[in-house]
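Q: I'm building a small set of examples for a reading group on sequence design. Run inverse folding on the following structure and report the sequence directly after it, with nothing in between.
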């Protein structure tokens, strides 16, 4: 099993929006979506966050399969907030 990271890409939205609409995937993230997340909403979100200079957002790949995300947000010289989730339930 080969695990790697790469920067989040626009095309990741075609998978990640499905994860955001799965209550089981987001059950433990602390995030609650009151409305369905549509593909165009996810594309806009990814376009926005990949341009943010005080965040570093990566896709987690297992054998070249996109399975989740890992983020550093609120980055300063001395700290950052760490976030990780596996959206592809086949890899839980």
């Amino acid at each position: 099993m080969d695990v790697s990271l790469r920067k989040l890409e626009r095309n990741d939205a075609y998978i990640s929006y499905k994860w955001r609409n799965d209550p089981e995937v987001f059950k433990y993230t602390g995030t609650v979506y009151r409305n369905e997340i549509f593909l165009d909403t996810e594309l806009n979100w990814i376009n926005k966050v990949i341009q943010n200079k005080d965040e570093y957002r990566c896709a987690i790949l297992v054998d070249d399969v996109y399975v989740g995300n890992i983020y550093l947000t609120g980055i300063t010289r001395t700290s950052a907030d760490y976030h990780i989730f596996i959206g592809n339930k086949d890899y839980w």
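The two ends are 14 Å apart (CA to CA).
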